[in-house]
């Protein structure tokens, strides 16, 4: 089984997912590195719970839509998500959906990130959370903001005044497209 080409190995899984795309509500994906599986999951109409067990995760780009979740429940889930980020994670790209919760993510994340991409830095609450995260996480080297216009100059100066080991850089400089 180990020597089988990837497309043959995952054909049965992909076929099963495609046949269940209208009824699948929950799935556990364990150590899967085959993008086709995730492409099929995008088409699952009522998928509510996706559990990932990836033991050596280093790069994570998380763009998602958060609908139909009460605010307090969502905050609890964001805390739980941040707390379980693996210690192997070095790169985290949080899309715009996560921006209202970036302070919660940063306050509860213990992953030794080297690169962090956030949507914008133009709020005191998010700036304070970023500074505290940078001080706590000595591995962090780069923080990128999606557009320079989303990086308030006063907040940039505040971050740079407190944190000397982290560079605020344009998104294009550190983005990883997998």
Describe the structure.
With 178 residues, the chain is of the alpha/beta class. 38% of the residues lie in helices and 17% in strands. The strands form 2 sheets. Strands 3-4-5-6-7 form a 5-stranded parallel β-sheet. It has a two-stranded parallel ribbon with strand order 1-2. The chain is elongated. The model has no long low-confidence stretch (mean pLDDT 80).
Describe the SSE topology.
Elements: H1 6-9, H2 11-19, E1 26-30, H3 35-42, E2 49-53, E3 59-62, H4 71-83, E4 91-94, H5 102-108, E5 115-118, H6 124-136, E6 142-145, H7 153-162, E7 167-170, H8 171-174
Parallel strand pairs: 1-2, 3-4, 4-5, 5-6, 6-7
* Low-pLDDT segments, ≥5 res: none
CATH class of the largest domain: Alpha Beta
Shape: elongated
CATH architect. name of the largest domain: Alpha-Beta Horseshoe
Question: What fraction strand?
Answer: 15-25%
Question: What is the helical fraction, as a range of percent?
Answer: 25-40%
H-E order:
HHEHEEHEHEHEHEH
Short description:
The protein is an alpha/beta fold. The protein has helices at residues 6-9, 11-19, 35-42, 71-83, 102-108, 124-136, 153-162, 171-174; strands spanning 26-30, 49-53, 59-62, 91-94, 115-118, 142-145, 167-170.
Characteristic terms for this protein:
7 strands; single chain; 178 residues; Leucine-rich repeat, LRR (right-handed beta-alpha superhelix); 2 domains
